[in-house]
């Protein structure tokens, strides 16, 4: 699916240019209702002619290293800095992906990002949305970037 | 922009006309991050002339009660039916807000709804954003409708 390629390009661009970390993409797959354990997710809505939702799911430890690299300061627990950083990461990914999906820049608008964190939670999309997830490896650890698009 | 008033009006209308449940709104909250002891949440992005995310947060029993009422069948657990129902209610509330803002020449587009469920999770928004949370009471307990927004 071409969207997997967009996710890979956007994620690599954002990580290398904003966070100065290299990430390696794995095989795209359909993530169906998997439980997320001890994780934090940044979520942003895509609104307009193309409707959807973009999410990045990071295990807590990975989120802490990403935030440390992003903000240039040590973070040891999931606090407001980490939540803001992961929300901002979703926002940057959404902005970059929007440029791929909508080169004219007039048909998709990003919502405000939201973060979900916890010991055990699930994030589902509506039943009929198309969904694709790309796993990425960062210094031996994995995180996921997921895109859901409405079929209309 | 009176977000609270619009959300109360729209939510009451949807519950009265589509779900046939009596609800009453409580004191509006503006607290930042809150767990609110909820086990299922749905969210949808609303974006355009301002940037926002609308969420509905329910304790498990309330999510089941609303779904039972709306679908006319017993619901034992937080399953696909509950997630789809709460996603659909978020979609309807956001649609109502969109219409209400459009009447004031404020244009918005919707993303697709997503649901979050689990034993323990926290939903938060960027610390710089504004937040309005409205508790609604029904026979079985309370649920919350929240909007996080930033004006452009």
TrEMBL record, chain A:
Taxonomic source organism: Malonomonas rubra DSM 5091
Alphabetized Pfam families for the sequence: CheX
Keyword terms: Chemotaxis
Protein's UniProt keywords contain Phosphoprotein: no
Name assigned to this protein: Chemotaxis protein CheX
Domain Chemotaxis phosphatase CheX-like per the UniProt entry, residue ranges: 40-137
Keyword DNA repair carried by entry: no
GO biological process: chemotaxis
From TrEMBL, chain B:
GO biological process, one term: chemotaxis
Segment forming the signal sequence: none
InterPro entries in the cross-refs: CheC-like_sf, CheX-like, CheX-like_dom
Domain Chemotaxis phosphatase CheX-like: 40-137
Record Pfam families: CheX
Assigned keywords, A-Z: Chemotaxis
Name of the protein in question: Chemotaxis protein CheX
């Amino acid at each position: 699916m071409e969207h997997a390629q967009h996710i890979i390009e956007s994620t690599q661009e954002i990580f290398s240019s904003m966070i100065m970390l290299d990430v390696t993409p794995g095989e795209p797959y359909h993530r169906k209702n998997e439980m997320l354990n001890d994780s934090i997710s940044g979520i942003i809505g895509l609104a307009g002619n193309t409707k959807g939702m973009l999410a990045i799911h990071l295990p807590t430890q990975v989120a802490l290293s990403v935030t440390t690299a992003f903000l240039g300061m040590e973070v040891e627990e999931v606090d407001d800095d980490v939540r803001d950083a992961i929300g901002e990461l979703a926002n940057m990914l959404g902005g970059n992906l929007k440029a791929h999906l909508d080169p004219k820049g007039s048909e998709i608008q990003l919502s405000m990002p939201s973060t979900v964190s916890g010991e055990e939670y699930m994030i589902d999309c509506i039943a009929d949305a198309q969904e694709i997830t790309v796993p990425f490896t960062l210094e031996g650890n994995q995180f996921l970037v997921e895109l859901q698009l409405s079929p209309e | 922009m009176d977000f609270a008033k619009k959300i109360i009006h729209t939510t009451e209308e949807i519950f009265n006309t589509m779900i046939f449940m009596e609800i009453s709104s409580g004191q509006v909250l503006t607290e930042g991050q809150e767990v609110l002891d909820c086990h299922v949440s749905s969210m949808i992005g609303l974006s355009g002339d301002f940037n926002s995310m609308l969420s509905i947060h329910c304790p498990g029993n309330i999510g089941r009660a609303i779904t039972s009422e709306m679908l006319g069948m017993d619901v034992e657990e937080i399953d696909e039916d509950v997630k789809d129902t709460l996603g659909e209610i978020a979609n309807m509330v956001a649609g109502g807000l969109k219409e209400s803002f459009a009447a004031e020449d404020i244009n918005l587009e919707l993303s697709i709804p997503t649901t979050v469920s689990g034993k323990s999770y926290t939903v938060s928004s960027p610390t710089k954003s504004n937040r309005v949370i409205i508790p609604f009471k029904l026979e079985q307990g309370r649920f919350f409708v929240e909007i996080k927004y930033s004006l452009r």
